[in-house]
Amino acid sequence: MEFNSINKLVEKYFSGETSIAEEKQLKDYFSQPDVAPHLEQYRAMFGYFTQAKQEQFTKTVPLQPRKRNYVAWISVAASVALLFGLFTFLNQHPQTHEHDLGTFEDPEVAYRETQKALELVSENVNVGVKGMSYMKEYEKTTKTIFR
């Protein structure tokens, strides 16, 4: 085989452009005793590929017995115990059905209490709306930047 064609094949091999047939030519060339001196450094690499292809794993792999998954059973048992305890607790302490809904006899007092409740709701909603103003500024900035 010509040294020029082998040099080209080696270059193609290291650039990842060789076919399987060309790689077989390289392996055959480097398995011969007469290799060009400047290509001698690649002999060990191609020899290793040939040797590694013939190796086989001969040790036996010990199979370990399958461990039981106790964690799953413990979680199921804990859930059942929790439900049983909750059921028992609720049956021993029945809830009293007092319906004190904050009813008022005087309409003026009812009106003032309703105003207090609505004012409290309004304050909490305004806090949320105030926080959203920052989001509007953020959206304007991101639209300006990413246009």
Low-confidence stretches: none
| Number of alpha- plus pi-helical segments | 5
| N- and C-termini, Cα separation | 62 Å
Globally, the shape reads elongated
Tell me the helix content: 55-70%
- Please identify the structural class as seen in this structure: mainly alpha
Order of helices and strands: HHHHH
Beta strands, count: 0
Q: Kindly report the average pLDDT value.
A: 81
Computed CA radius of gyration, to the nearest angstrom? 41 Å
Could you describe the largest sheet, including whether it forms a barrel? none
Strand content: under 5%
Describe the structure in brief.
By secondary structure, the chain is an all-alpha fold. The chain contains five helices and no strands. The chain is 67% helix and 0% strand.
Describe the structure.
Among the domains are: 3-54, no CATH class; 104-147. The longest helix has 39 residues, at 107-145. Helices cover 67% and strands 0% of the residues. By secondary structure, it is an all-alpha fold. Helix 1 packs across helix 2 (20-31) and helix 2 crosses helix 3.
Give the topology, please.
Layout: H1 3-14, H2 20-31, H3 43-54, H4 70-92, H5 107-145
Please supply descriptive tags for the structure shown above:
5 helices, mainly alpha, 67% helix
